Amino acid sequence: MAVFEGTFTQDTSSLKFAIVIGRFNDLITTKLLAGCQDCLKRHGVDTNPHGTNVDYVWVPGSFEVAMVARQLALSGRYNAIICLGAVIRGQTPHFDYVASEAAKGVAAASFQTGIPVVFGVLTTDTMQQALERAGIKSNLGWDYALSALEMSSLMNQLRGEVATKSVFPVKEEGLLPAQSVETSS
Ligand code: INI
């Protein structure tokens, strides 16, 4: 058996990411994006929009990020997609609908495509709380980029492993040792 874990020390020069950013509350989302880029850059990813590693897609708000992320994931061009948004509670229940649909949509995009889609949509009660998480105290954009790097590495390992010998080989008899399972090439 084996332990699989993503690393941050892989050769990142061939990794491809897409970052989907909601324009709504862009005071926050541009800061999340900056944190995200800083982390990717320090891990060897070329974040230049004219480079070969990262594409950027702007959408109106958090409600739209998942739909676009799913489309990008389906293209098969990316190791991971990072969704950035900021949903801040107001006086109406609008917050709950936008936040909940964004979360459900991002999860669905990931499940349906098998590509890691990182949920980088902040949901806070106040603008102050959002600012604190987007640069004043820490910048969660950094953490979202780390998740994308880790998941890219992990999925690459699992794909390699599944292609050569099944990680969870199941035959009619039940679980068998990996080496006894025939592989098709
Ligand atoms: N979009 C956000 O990203 N954050 C919000 O706080 C927000 N609020 O509160 O309304 C918001 N609304 C816009 C929404 O994401 C869509 O863009 C819009 O409804 C059009 O579909």
UniProtKB/TrEMBL annotation:
Coiled coil (UniProt feature): none
Organism annotation: Lusitaniella coriacea LEGE 07157
InterPro entries hit by this protein: LS, LS/RS, LS/RS_sf
GO MF annotation: an example: 6,7-dimethyl-8-ribityllumazine synthase activity
GO BP term, example: riboflavin biosynthetic process
Binding site for 5-amino-6-(D-ribitylamino)uracil: F24, S62, F63, E64, A86, V87, I88, F119
Catalyzed reactions per annotation: (2S)-2-hydroxy-3-oxobutyl phosphate + 5-amino-6-(D-ribitylamino)uracil = 6,7-dimethyl-8-(1-D-ribityl)lumazine + phosphate + 2 H2O + H(+)
Entry protein name: 6,7-dimethyl-8-ribityllumazine synthase
Pfam families: DMRL_synthase
Superkingdom, taxonomy of origin: Bacteria
Enzyme Commission identifier(s): 2.5.1.78
GO cellular component: cytosol; riboflavin synthase complex
Its biological purpose: Catalyzes the formation of 6,7-dimethyl-8-ribityllumazine by condensation of 5-amino-6-(D-ribitylamino)uracil with 3,4-dihydroxy-2-butanone 4-phosphate. This is the penultimate step in the biosynthesis of riboflavin.
Pathway(s) per entry: Cofactor biosynthesis; riboflavin biosynthesis; riboflavin from 2-hydroxy-3-oxobutyl phosphate and 5-amino-6-(D-ribitylamino)uracil: step 1/2
Family stated for the protein in its record: Belongs to the DMRL synthase family.
Keywords, comma-separated and alphabetical: Riboflavin biosynthesis, Transferase
Residues annotated as catalytic: H94
Sites where the protein binds (2S)-2-hydroxy-3-oxobutyl phosphate: Q91, T92, R133
